[in-house]
Fold ATP-binding protein.
Amino acid sequence: MKIAFVGKGGSGKTTLSSLFIRHLAATESPVVAVDADINQHLGAALGMPEHEAAAMPAMGAHLPLIKDYLRGSNPRIVSADTMIKTTPPGEGSRLLRVREDNPVYEACARTVGLDDGDIRLMATGPFTESDLGVSCYHSKVGAVELCLNHLVDGADEYVVVDMTAGSDSFASGLFTRFDMTFLVAEPTRKGVSVYRQYKEYARDFGVALKVVGNKVQGQDDLDFLRAEVGDDLLVTVGHSDWVRAMEKGRPPRFELLEAENRMSLQALQDAADDSYAHRDWDRYTRQMVHFHLRNAESWGNAKTGADLAAQVDPEFVLGEPLAVARLG
Ligand SMILES: Nc1ncnc2c1ncn2[C@@H]1O[C@H](COP(=O)(O)OP(=O)(O)O)[C@@H](O)[C@H]1O
Ligand SMILES: [Mg+2]
């Protein structure tokens, strides 16, 4: 399943993503983690040595390779140059799986050893000042969208993306690519305003959105979040001494994480599992086509000089071969 952590800068997206990833590793689940946050800190939060984190390949820099691989022999996509971030897979495209080796992982992923097993980490690459404008930022995050749209994930496999919740996530279909989106919010007006904005965009696309209250210190904080986000509040996490120790570069073993926080992580997993159980591959595919047609019309056709609507394979449904057969 595919899971996103979003929220305002400093709310704790990266911290909670990293704890959730450690939790999944402790349950022996295969994990592909993706750092798509403006500040690329997920590797560090997972305890990656500094020199290794600094040497993480940038997905944005490997876009040509990613496009070429995913395009495969799809006759509707005549060249990698005409492939934009929303170009959907079709007959002949290559699909990615969580548990496999492939050229995309080889180029972009690194293994991170955690207390309870290894996970794969990929990163968009650091955003510079100019990336925060429109096009480059999107091409870096676009590599993530392409991969997610070509990724066939099972119920016991996890893709966890740490990403920024700005209007940037809404310029493409990226925000609709997840079985569960965890919006990390501190009990502040700013924290919940990001939630409201996200909810607004998500509404029309059936995005499963749950709020994770972070740095919640007592009843008043809890009451505030309850009042502001209602039933969307899934769990809250308090100040964690474990996290603080990790920040000092002395991470205790994961099993020593506070029991309450471990329970919160389990609740996140349960919510994501529940949501995946309702994954509708047909709808998932239709949404990617929707955003592709929108992008094609608004800038893609002009940029590539091609009619990108022709890239859509009307017969294709992303999913395991079995699931496809069932739908057919
Ligand atoms: N529950 C927590 N307990 C203790 N420190 C936390 C907690 N959540 C976040 N922090 C700290 O707050 C800071 C910002 O968190 P971070 O995860 O980097 O935010 P974001 O990725 O949303 O920008 C970090 O120094 C982090 O260690
Ligand atoms: Mg972060």
Remarks:
- The first strand starts at residue 2 and ends at 7.
- The CA atoms of residues 212 and 235 lie 5 Å apart.
- The chain has one domain: 2-327.
